[in-house]
Amino acid sequence: MSDHPRRCSLAAEDAHRPYEIRRLRIGFYLALFTIDEANKTVFVIGFRHGHHRQISSKLPANSPEG
After folding, report:
1. Domains in the chain: how many in total?
2. pLDDT confidence of 49, banded at 50, 70, 90?
3. Is residue 63 a part of any domain in this protein?
4. Of 21, 39, 56, 65, which has fewest CB within 10 angstroms of its CB?
């Protein structure tokens, strides 16, 4: 994730926030994250089981990068 975070696809939760949310599958789970290009930083903002519903209501309303 740290070397090529854009290789991961957009998460379903992306449609519900004003910032980009990507996902990385880790076993049966999805790591949800956003990218701060200016600082070359990845912020992990949530995890969910791959077959569970979206967790949009539990994610930050604004991008963690400020």
Report:
1. 1
2. confident
3. no
4. 39
Q: Tell me, what DSSP letter sits at residue 65?
A: T
Decide if 65 is inside a domain: no
C-beta separation of 59 from 21 below 8 A:
yes
pTM above the 0.85 mark? no
- Is 48 contained in some domain? yes
User: What is the identity of the amino acid at 17?
Assistant: R
Q: Report pLDDT for 57.
A: 63
Q: What is the token pair recorded at 24?
A: 């990385």
Residue with tokens 């994730």: 1
Tell me how far apart the alpha carbons of residues 9 and 11 are, in angstroms, rounded to a whole number: 6
Please report whether residue 29 resides in a domain. yes
Strands (E) located in the chain:
22-26, 29-36, 41-49
